[in-house]
TrEMBL record:
InterPro entries: BFD-associated_ferredoxin, BFD-like_2Fe2S-bd_dom, BFD-like_2Fe2S-bd_dom_sf
Keyword flag Iron: yes
Residue ranges occupied by any BFD-like [2Fe-2S]-binding domain in the UniProt entry: 2-49
Pfam families xrefs: Fer2_BFD (PF04324)
Family: Belongs to the Bfd family.
GO MF entries: 2 iron, 2 sulfur cluster binding; metal ion binding
Top-level taxonomic group: Bacteria
Keywords: 2Fe-2S, Electron transport, Iron, Iron-sulfur, Metal-binding, Transport
UniProt protein name: Bacterioferritin-associated ferredoxin
């Protein structure tokens, strides 16, 4: 779905930008041009950014848990907590 019609930016573009390190609206503005024309996309772009960040954080937590399990050899009694 298009998020920013003026710059033809979709949810996928924002998801990709987050994977590349975008964390704030400023990052989307600089890298994708979001909100640089009519600004009607600001609210939707912010929601899309927050959703992408949540998914990215969840993926990072999952990776961290698996890395800890690999390092500890799945030691009995060791239950890493995802935050
Ligand atoms: S829709 Fe994003 S700047 Fe116009």
């Amino acid at each position: 779905m298009y998020i920013c019609v003026c710059n033809a930016v979709t949810e996928r573009h924002i998801e990709h930008a987050v994977k590349q390190g975008a964390r704030r609206m400023r990052d989307l503005r600089q890298n994708l041009g979001v909100t640089t024309e009519c600004n009607r996309c600001a609210t939707c772009a912010k929601q899309c950014l927050n959703s992408a960040l949540e998914r990215s954080d969840a993926a990072q937590d999952s990776l961290a848990v698996r890395a800890l399990q690999a390092l500890t050899g799945g030691a009995p009694g060791f239950e890493p907590q995802a935050s």
